[in-house]
Amino acid sequence: MSETTIQSAVIDRYEGKLAVVFFTDDPDTPVDIERQYLPKRKPKEGTYLKVERRGDEIVQITVDQEATKAARQRIQEKLARLRRGDHLNNAPPSDSSPEA
To answer: Rounded to the nearest 5 degrees, what angle is found at the Cα of 58, between the Cα atoms of 55 and 60?
Structure first.
């Protein structure tokens, strides 16, 4: 019998009857999961999930409220810094000399 593992994933988008997710331990490889395996209340894009697997079989998927809240908070803070122009204050000086 295979070992049961719990992995963290985030919903990137929906394509028809599939949710395209990225597992945090392999963020470069998208994985398609049928919507029927997701929690009843359809999670939005950007929602983090806890995916319980036994081998390649999905046993259960639940919403990871804490990880989702933390990610949304990080995004809100980044947007606030962008709106304030903080990224402009830390920009390296541009070389305004004409090229020869």
So the answer is: 130
Question: Looking at the domain that runs over 4-84, which CATH code has it been given?
Answer: 2.40.50.140
Q: How far is CA 21 from the centre of its chain?
A: 8
- What are the sequence ranges of the domains in the chain? 4-84
Position 2 confidence tier, pLDDT thresholds 50, 70, 90: confident
Residue-wise pLDDT tens digits, 6-36: 999 999 999 999 999 999 999 999 999 999 8
Please tell me whether the overall predicted TM-score, pTM, comes out greater than 0.70 for this model: yes
The two structure tokens encoding residue 93: 């000086």
- Strand ranges across the sheet with 57-63: 26-34, 18-23, 4-15, 48-54, 57-63
Q: How long is the chain?
A: 100
